[in-house]
C-alpha cells in the first residue's frame, strides 16, 4: 500500500471542517417507516398507585383526587384540543399483606407503606379494607382502563414464617410457610373472584415481586412489604395459583416473574436467575409451558439497568434475543429512576424536563431495543419536588399534614412525556421497525433523535420522537405501504410551560417535520 502525504493550510482545514459540520446539521434526518415491517404488539402502558393511594383515596378532597384520576386515566380532550389526561391502559393494584393492621409492630418504619389485607387472621374476608386503593381502582374502571393488574409483594402475614410482611433473616428463601402455598393461592383467587363479581375484572394477577432481593431487615427498619422467592418457590406458587384459577373457573392470567432487574431474566447464578430458560423451556424441570393461565410472556423491571448508553442497549438487546429464542414476549412492569443513571454524569440537580426526557428515552429503549410489549411505571405519585429530580413519579404530592389525610399535588413533565406514548399508542397496535439515514449506532442514537413508530391498522401511524439534543432538528418521514397518509397532527412536550402534550393544528403532510430542542413529539398521521 502506498501512503500519500497531504498537506492542508490551517485555514482550509478549518473551512473543510466547518463545511462538513454545517452540512450535517442542515441535512434533515430521514426516518424510513415501512408499515409491513412490524415488530411486537403493544398490550398496554400503565402505572401503580402504591403506596400513597390509601390516604389520598380515603381522605383527600374529592375534587383533588378526581383531578388526579382524570390526569392518569382520561383520553378526552379540552375545547382547545389539549389532552385532559394521559389515557393509561393499565393500572396496577397492590393486594396488601396485613402490615397496616399490625401498626408499628409490623416492623415497617413508614406507616404509608404498610398495607391492609382483605383476609383477617380468623379466616374471614373484609372487602372494606384498602378503601383508598379501591377508590382509584374503580376510577380506572370508570375511565375505561383496559387492563387491571393485581400484584402482591408478600403473602398475608399470618401465612409467613416470621408473621411479618418482610424477612428478618437474609437467606434468600421465601417467607411463606411451606404448607401455605395452596392457602396463598386460594387467597389471591378469592380476591380476583370478589372483584369479578363487583365488575372489576383483573386481567392479570402477579403473585411474586422482585424475587431476587433478600427483603430482610431488622424490625422497625424495613422499608416495605416484600419476600424473596427462588425459581423453585416461584414455580410452586405459580402452579398453585394456576390450579386455583382453574378450579374457580376464573379467566385472569398470571403475570410473572416481575424480576428485580432485566438481567435476571436471562443470566446470573442465583437461585432466581436465568428465568426465561428455566420457566419457558418445554423440557425444563420448572417449565410453565403446560400451565393454562400463564401466557407466553415474562415481566421484569428496568431498575438499575439504565446507567450508560452502551449498557442500556446491550442489556436490552440480549434480553430481546433471549426472549425471541424461547418464543416469548417481555413486559417491562416497573420502572422509576431509582439509580443515578438518569443524571448521565451530571452532579447537578436534574430539571423536570431532563427527567422527563430520560423517562421517555428509557421507554423508547425498552420498546425499540428490548421489544417490550408493555411498559409500566412504578409509582404514579409520591411526595417531592415538581421542579427538580422528579425521578420517582408523575405527580408530586404536597401533603398538608403528617398523617396524609389532606393535601394537594403538582404536575411534572414526566406525566406528559409518558403521555406521549400512553395516550396515543393503544392496546393492539404494533410497533413498526424504522430506519435512518445518518448511520448512527444504537448507542449514539440514545443521545440524538430517538424514534418509535406504531401502526394501528390501514394507513394509521403514530410516531413518538425524542429530540435529545439542544438544537432544532428536522426529520423527514419516508413512509412505505402507507399510501393515503395526507395529514398529521403533533403533540409536544418540552421545557416550555405550555408544552404539555401541546397540540398543533392538523397539517398537510409535506415530508419535513421540525422538532423543538429537548422535546418529545408525538406525530399522529391521518
TrEMBL record:
GO molecular function term, any single one: hydrolase activity
Q: Which organism is it from?
A: Mucilaginibacter terrae
Which InterPro entries does the UniProt record give? 6GAL-like, 6GAL/EXGAL, GH, Glyco_hydro_b
Q: Which SUPFAM superfamilies match?
A: (Trans)glycosidases
Q: Which residues form the signal peptide?
A: 1-22
One Pfam family name from the record? Glyco_hydr_30_2
Taxonomically, which superkingdom?
A: Bacteria
Domain Endo-beta-1,6-galactanase-like stretches: 30-382
Question: What lineage, starting at the top, does this entry show?
Answer: Bacteria, Pseudomonadati, Bacteroidota, Sphingobacteriia, Sphingobacteriales
Protein name (record): O-glycosyl hydrolase
Q: Which UniProt keywords apply?
A: Hydrolase, Signal
Amino acid at each position: 500500500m502506498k501512503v500519500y502525504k497531504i498537506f492542508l493550510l490551517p485555514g482550509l482545514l478549518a473551512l473543510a471542517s466547518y463545511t462538513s459540520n454545517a452540512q450535517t446539521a442542515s441535512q434533515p434526518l430521514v426516518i424510513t417507516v415501512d408499515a409491513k415491517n412490524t415488530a411486537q404488539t403493544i398490550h398496554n402502558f400503565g402505572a401503580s398507585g402504591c403506596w400513597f393511594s390509601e390516604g389520598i383515596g380515603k381522605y383527600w378532597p374529592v375534587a383533588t383526587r378526581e383531578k388526579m384520576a382524570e390526569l392518569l386515566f382520561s383520553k378526552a380532550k379540552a375545547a382547545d384540543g389539549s389532552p385532559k389526561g394521559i389515557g393509561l391502559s393499565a393500572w396496577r393494584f397492590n393486594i396488601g399483606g396485613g402490615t397496616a393492621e399490625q401498626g408499628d409492630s409490623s416492623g415497617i418504619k413508614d406507616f404509608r407503606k404498610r398495607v391492609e389485607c382483605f383476609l383477617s387472621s380468623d379466616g374471614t374476608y373484609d372487602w372494606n379494607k384498602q378503601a383508598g386503593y379501591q377508590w382509584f381502582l374503580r376510577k380506572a374502571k370508570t375511565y375505561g382502563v383496559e387492563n387491571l393488574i393485581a400484584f402482591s409483594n408478600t403473602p398475608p402475614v399470618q401465612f409467613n414464617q416470621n408473621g411479618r410482611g418482610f424477612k428478618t433473616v437474609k437467606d434468600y428463601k421465601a417467607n411463606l410457610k411451606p404448607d401455605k402455598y395452596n392457602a396463598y393461592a386460594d387467597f389471591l383467587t378469592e380476591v380476583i373472584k370478589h372483584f369479578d363479581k363487583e365488575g372489576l375484572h383483573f386481567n392479570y394477577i402477579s403473585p411474586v415481586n422482585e424475587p431476587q432481593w433478600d427483603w430482610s431487615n431488622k424490625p422497625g427498619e424495613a422499608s416495605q412489604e416484600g419476600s424473596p422467592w427462588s425459581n423453585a418457590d416461584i414455580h410452586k406458587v405459580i402452579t398453585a395459583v394456576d390450579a386455583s384459577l382453574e378450579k374457580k373457573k376464573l379467566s385472569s392470567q398470571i403475570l410473572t416473574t416481575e424480576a428485580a432487574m432485566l438481567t435476571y431474566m436471562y443470566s446470573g447464578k442465583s437461585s432466581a436467575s436465568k428465568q426465561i430458560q428455566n420457566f419457558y423451556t418445554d423440557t425444563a424441570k420448572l417449565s410453565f409451558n403446560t400451565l393454562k393461565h400463564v401466557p407466553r410472556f415474562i415481566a421484569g423491571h428496568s431498575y438499575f439497568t439504565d446507567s450508560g448508553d452502551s449498557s442500556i442497549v446491550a442489556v436490552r438487546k440480549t434480553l430481546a434475543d433471549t426472549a425471541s429464542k424461547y418464543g416469548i414476549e417481555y413486559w417491562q412492569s416497573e420502572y422509576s429512576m431509582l439509580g443515578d443513571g438518569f443524571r448521565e454524569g451530571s452532579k447537578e440537580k436534574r430539571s423536570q424536563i431532563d427527567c422527563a426526557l430520560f423517562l421517555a428515552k428509557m421507554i423508547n429503549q425498552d420498546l425499540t431495543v428490548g421489544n417490550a410489549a408493555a411498559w409500566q411505571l412504578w409509582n404514579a405519585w409520591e411526595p417531592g419536588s415538581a421542579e427538580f429530580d422528579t425521578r420517582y413519579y408523575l405527580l408530586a404530592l404536597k401533603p398538608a399534614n403528617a398523617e396524609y389525610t389532606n393535601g394537594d399535588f403538582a404536575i411534572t413533565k414526566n406525566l406528559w412525556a409518558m403521555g406521549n406514548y400512553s395516550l396515543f399508542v393503544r392496546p393492539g397496535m404494533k410497533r413498526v421497525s424504522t430506519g435512518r439515514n445518518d448511520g448512527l449506532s444504537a448507542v449514539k442514537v440514545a443521545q440524538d433523535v430517538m424514534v418509535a413508530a406504531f401502526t394501528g391498522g390501514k394507513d394509521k401511524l403514530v410516531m413518538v420522537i425524542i429530540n435529545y439534543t439542544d438544537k432544532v432538528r428536522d426529520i423527514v418521514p419516508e413512509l412505505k405501504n402507507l399510501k393515503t397518509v395526507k395529514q398529521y397532527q403533533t403533540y409536544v412536550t418540552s421545557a416550555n410551560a405550555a408544552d404539555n402534550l401541546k397540540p398543533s393544528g392538523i397539517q398537510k403532510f409535506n415530508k419535513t417535520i421540525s422538532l423543538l430542542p429537548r422535546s418529545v413529539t408525538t406525530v399522529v398521521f391521518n
